[in-house]
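Project standup — Tuesday

K.O.: blocked on the structure for the chain from last sprint. Re-posting the sequence here as requested.
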Amino acid sequence: MVKDRMVELLQEHFELNLYEARAYVALVGFGVLTPAELASVSEVPAPRTYDVLRSLEKKGFAISQPGKVNKYRPVHPENILEKFIEEWQERVKEELEAKKKAKEELIELMKPLIETEIPKYGVERVWVVRGIRNATLKTREMFEEVKEKILLADDGYIAINLENDLIKAIDNGAKAKIIVSKSLLKRLEGSKIMEYAKKGKLELRALDKFELPMLICDDEVFFALEDMAARYFNYETQVWIKDFRVRDLFETKFNEYWEKAEKV
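H.V.: unblocked you, prediction finished:
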């Protein structure tokens, strides 16, 4: 119903709760209402109408007319909704600046900890990363740190979602060979990856399918363990290994795919 959609939009985007949204829609529809009238024409419970209308007034969505029985009328939707958006933009801008300042302060405070990272964690060569978000962060980190070589056998996620990070690594001097599944080619039309391939800035080939998608950045290897249930719930387990011997094994497999793949 149209009324339900209006209530839903007010809740989702304009910070009104369910009863406030219902009350505002009723006010817009009827023009002027007392608390008792609101209870009779809307789904706001009678014991809550006074509080709900006062809350709407406080938030700027309604105006009260004092009297023996207070009456309320709505502020015109175009006015209050536009005002809300303007205030929200300012609030977001302030919050963004606060977060940037907090980031800078945290980096400064954490410098002593960051400086001890190598001796503390340098011996670690194997990590397990779970979930799309964590896998994305780790992949971005690999692209930021790669110096010489990127080998990517991708069945969809990295080329589509981390294209900018990949391109930046190439712009910074890394050489890249990329194999994608043929089903992915159409989605890459018009992409930077396709543009760079045509200009010879990276090598791109396509293969019907491959059993082991992987990313190799210099001596680092990143690949997913096969688990369809985990993939369905975006909780796929990825393994990161930094070891030149493991890198050599995966690079051998990558080269097998490369020989079978067709040039794009």
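K.O.: great, moving the ticket to review. Confidence is low (pLDDT under 50) at residues 117-122. The first helix runs from residue 2 to 14.
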